Structures are given as C-alpha cells and as structure tokens.
Amino acid sequence: MAQATANFTASATIIQPIGITTTSNMSFANLDAKSGGAVILSPDNTRLTSGDVALADGTPASAASFTVTGETGFTYAVTLPSSEYVLTNGSENMIIKDFTSNIDNSGSLAGGSQNIRVGATLKVNPNQTPGNYTSPAGFNVTVNYN
C-alpha cells in the first residue's frame, strides 16, 4: 500500500504587552458648595452642575488622562471604576461616582498607543466644609486586549 507524508513547521509571535500609564490626575477644580448638588466632569474637561453648586475660577478642571500602549492594530477593552468612592477632607466627605471615558469601553492601538481620558460625577453636600478634598487611594482603570 502506498503512503504519503507531509511536514509542517510551527511558529509563535509574541506581541507587545498592553500597558497603561497615568499622564494626569483628575481635578474638579474650585467649587462653591452653596446648598449642594453635583458636578459632572466630562472626559473633555468640561464641567456641568446640577443643584446649587457653583463653578469657581482658579485652577482649571481636568479629567484623568492615560496613555495605553501595546501591539499596533490591536483593540482593547477599558474597565472603569464602577462603585461610589469618597473624597475626604479630615472628617468631611464627598462621593465620586459614574466614571466615564472618551472611548466607549473599547479602544484601538492604531499607532501602538492611544490616549484616553476619564471623567466622573462629584456629589457636593449642602454647605460642604471648605478645604481640599482628596481620594485616600487611587482609582483603577484597567485595560485588556479584546
């Protein structure tokens, strides 16, 4: 009986690992609490208010920004913080929540990198005590290849 044989080779390509670096932190900037409300900081650094909170002059507001790096042409998913968190000033607190990004949960590394920005909503209590409110710990933004 006749027999035929074919051979093959094997290969593997190691891709560039995905990475993310913080390039700027989030700042809602100066606010006048008045009788309270909320400040929405969009990923494009625009602030909108609801309730009686007033936007004050001074330091400009800024969304958090990041550079995502990885294999050119690959797409990735972004996971933003999903819970409510606290900004504190001594015993005083404000809630930060509803994180948003300038990309809709998925980005593309067309040139091997992409910049993303993250905004959020800050709940300001009536007559909030003046001072600098900060997060006790950082917030995680996670990226994974699709």
Automatic annotation (TrEMBL):
Name of the molecule in the record: DUF4402 domain-containing protein
Superkingdom to which the source organism belongs: Bacteria
Organism: Gillisia lutea
Pfam families from the UniProt entry: DUF4402
InterPro entries registered for this protein in UniProt: DUF4402 (IPR025514)
